[in-house]
């Protein structure tokens, strides 16, 4: 924890440990058991879901000024109401890389630090993008079901579509987009992308217009951050440009895609298929999708592996410890 | 060129005898029927046995056996053109003895099969089909988060058979961050991945075994009980080769006892029958032998078949001959 301190003064760690144990940390939802245990071990942990996930209810039985840190995730982050309720809040450590559930402007205003979990989850999310493509094109979910319900005895399964060599378009060439591109290249895919600005070191074709990207590729992958500008960036126009043989993969945020338009495009055959890990109103998934054979649906599992969940948890804990030891945050946002 | 080959007249395409199960055929409108005179005894039984005696080329559609009895009926046969990567249904020893060349699908299927191996691995480690079912069955709002999977790149991948398919698998999984090792009949000098001299040693040093070697007498049940023990309780087996490469009975027992982490299987020992114990398991992904069932693979297969037949009928080197060793 505090190696320098340990060398200078062997008692410092013990004192710091006791001090840390009294620090009030609010966890917004049950995101990962290991993280919960670590927070309980190191801090004075409060769990918002024990109060029906309601700040108002929490404040009926707890003092707002006891909370000095909030650990949020993609479900419940730190919005203006939460920030206002905890006057002693010093840091929001998000168990996610996405920041769309955090009122960053409010945090900046009040001098509240924000940390997230970049890099440790890049591989898992990029893996899932490819996994969803394979799921949609090679129909492994449908074929698994076919065997389980005994249909193979009656007839062969039928044709799928090849993935290798197809053209892939990536919306957002950040850490995750770049990792997706590297994987797709191993499948012989041609890569192009749309981004706020061209990346000088990326050896892929850049499109300054997302419609042009969608027109040019067979598989379109959403891998950008969710901001005001990127909300519903995948709209009817983009979906139509992708076309009846096109596949949409969303490992970003549900709000990136106009879900109503997506559903109607799939039902009408204007879009070839979709692989989705995120939805506009999780955990609700549009009922019309549940019966479609050309979609693969995942329950927001982008970084949900044992290895990555633990690594994310460790990063959250490290950021909190660093902050409360007056050390630099490992992965600061603000 | 036409003059060298007495069979090939200006307008008459060469005759090729088709050998297939009655229920298994190429789709109609395929390019083969325009390039060659395909004689199919199932749809048009030959009126005279003399016709069979003059057949030089046999097109084997699907895994229909080619036995000494088959060959006895075709005394002029010089080439068997297979339609799959595997040729375990063809008696290669007999063919060699009679100087009959055999060709397979070459690398027509390699990319699709490699893609499928990755898909199956992803399905097992990241639980893709189980997650999809979870959403469709409405459990997400009720039961909350889906259980965690495992990171692909954290796995040591052992490839059994580093031929055309195995190499493509290695290339893909290396991009996911997996470390790759392999076992093959012979060490490949140009390959930098670690080589193991037998399947057990490979398994002992791997978390995932991907079976993509040819099926023959030496490789029957190459993934046996000892290999499964060496692979370990978290181990995952992916089979895109042939069912009999894996001792299926042992595999089922290991999975049921929790002594193996999971399996992704496109092939089985007695297709289309799948052991019923596997049907309920969430840590397996099952597939009805469809790793090459794409229009793209079929086009590539036709290219290879046409190229091999054209080469044969013009006395040129074959494109994808199978060596009997």
TrEMBL record, chain A:
Keywords: Oxidoreductase. The keyword Acetylation does not apply. It comes from Salix suchowensis. InterPro entries: D-isomer_2-hydroxyacid_DH (IPR050223), D-isomer_2_OHA_DH_cat_dom (IPR006139), D-isomer_DH_CS1 (IPR029752), D-isomer_DH_NAD-bd (IPR006140), NAD(P)-bd_dom_sf (IPR036291). Residues 33-333 form the D-isomer specific 2-hydroxyacid dehydrogenase catalytic domain. Belongs to the D-isomer specific 2-hydroxyacid dehydrogenase family. The keyword Chloroplast does not apply. Gene3D superfamilies: NAD(P)-binding Rossmann-like Domain. Residues 130-302 form the D-isomer specific 2-hydroxyacid dehydrogenase NAD-binding domain. This is Hydroxyphenylpyruvate reductase.
UniProtKB/TrEMBL annotation, chain B:
Signal peptide: none annotated. Keywords: Oxidoreductase. Residues 52-322 form the D-isomer specific 2-hydroxyacid dehydrogenase catalytic domain. Residues 118-291 form the D-isomer specific 2-hydroxyacid dehydrogenase NAD-binding domain. It comes from the Eukaryota. Belongs to the D-isomer specific 2-hydroxyacid dehydrogenase family. This is Uncharacterized protein. The lineage of its organism: Eukaryota, Viridiplantae, Streptophyta, Embryophyta, Tracheophyta.
